[in-house]
Amino acid sequence: MLQKSLSKRRVMNEQPNKNFYEIYSADRCEPLIIASGLGQLEMKALRRTSYPGLELPDGVLSGVYSVGYWDAKRNQGWGLDWHRNEGIEFTFLSSGSLDFSLEKEQFNLRPGNLTVTRPWQLHRVGNPNVTTGKLYWMIIDVGVQQPHQDWKWPDWVVLSKDDLLELTKILRQNEMPVWKTSGVLNNSFKEIGRCLDGSTSKEQIPHSKLNILINNLLLQMLDLFRKG
Known about the structure:
Layout: E1 7-10, H1 30-37, E2 42-47, E3 54-55, E4 64-72, E5 80-83, E6 88-96, E7 98-102, E8 105-109, E9 113-117, E10 123-125, E11 133-140, H2 161-173, E12 178-180, H3 183-197, H4 207-227
Parallel strand pairs: 2-3
Antiparallel strand pairs: 1-8, 2-4, 4-11, 5-10, 6-9, 6-11, 7-8, 7-10, 9-12
């Protein structure tokens, strides 16, 4: 459960742009791509479309738009401004601290915090800039563009029908965007990170291992949500 020490406050003085609620295109993390190219931080990722990282081949982890991590050894001069993502996005902070905003709520993430952002939900990373820390992320397409549409997970997600229905229901109705997690979840993200470290070409992507690790991660998240 989210600990009381996690800072949560209303953004009272913020004056968003007039198009704040009219951001309909998906974010492509261009500031992250630029910072990584300039050597300002370490970044490893697999992606589809124009997200950062090594492109995933067709048929490998279908539905994964982006999975990766950044490791910033110093405060950055950039942030990911207000944006939306096509899929369900999970991020996990393993070290440092990071400001995370969801529409009119702002959180200061600490190590062990997991964020859950529904498809097309407006959010921002950094306030306005990213600070020192290591952040993992994963964006999975569940086939929706509007809240009332039915979610459809990729066919390689092998949770039982009942478990997947329960996970989907929790995620669709979730009003708690930041969770305090256990060491088990931390280890799972680190294992995914090690797979990314070894993926220097399309031929070296450990498809089967990533498949297993992501399924295990989803199951661990379900257990976390059940416990509340």
